[in-house]
Sequence to fold (262 residues):
Amino acid sequence: MKISFITLFPEFIKSYIQTGLLGRAQLNNIFEFEVYNIRDNAEGNYKSVDDTVYGGGDGALIQYAPLKKTLDQIELASDSAVIYLSPQGRPLDSALINELKNKKHLVLVSGRYAGIDQRFITRHVHIEVSIGDYVLSGGELPSLVLVECLSRQCDGVLGNQKSSKEDSFVNNFLEAPQFTKPVEIDGMTVPQVLTSGDHKKIEVWKKNMSVLMTLSKREDLIASHDHINWPDVLSFYNSLSEEDKNLMQIHHLLEKIKKYSL
Ligand code: ADE
Fold:
């Protein structure tokens, strides 16, 4: 997949995409990154790219012309998607990531200041994407957030593909709690099933714990699932020891599970 960044802070983007997972994905030819500086297409001595807002309003907007000239430098194909990162966009979630991961080319446009001229969005942007209901100073971090989410779902980026399938949200469930050595510390013991070596039991445990974690921390996600076998979840919950319920902070869930089991 080719990813073209349009930004006023190319160095920031470049330094991030060279490191870690994204750097490796680039070396392995899974991603091809290119970074375009809007300022390179500014006119005049001051290389200004922004101006005040018609009708009044705080701050300045990036103008249409330098954005359009920058976009014109990029070779677009019929399935290229031009994405503008903004708080007004479609919320980034795993459904959107799944749609985007089939594209061959993404162009990620980062705004700064108070945003960009609406005419650029209307004419050239296919999808506006938001990473949450808060306002950042620019689209650079959101564009990197998007690429990093995407990379975790693209084949060959993670060494262990299974681990991204177990990521929270991939199936709209949160993931089960995880533990590492030692088995016991400060009076807390890893749930016995996880050290049993019984893979089938462990799988069942993880699935049920995913449901319980989601119910406990993000009950709003439960509504998107209509195939949860609540009587099974209830008997799983009842089979847990008090110690395990306390360890995973789910001792308060009985009434909620009963409500769904009705
Ligand atoms: N630019 C500024 N804030 C943003 C947000 N929350 N999501 C995407 N882009 C942004």
Notes: The radius of gyration is 23 Å. The longest helix spans residues 199-217. Residues 85-87, 130-132, 134-136, 139, 142 surround adenine (CB under 6 Å). The first strand starts at residue 2 and ends at 7.
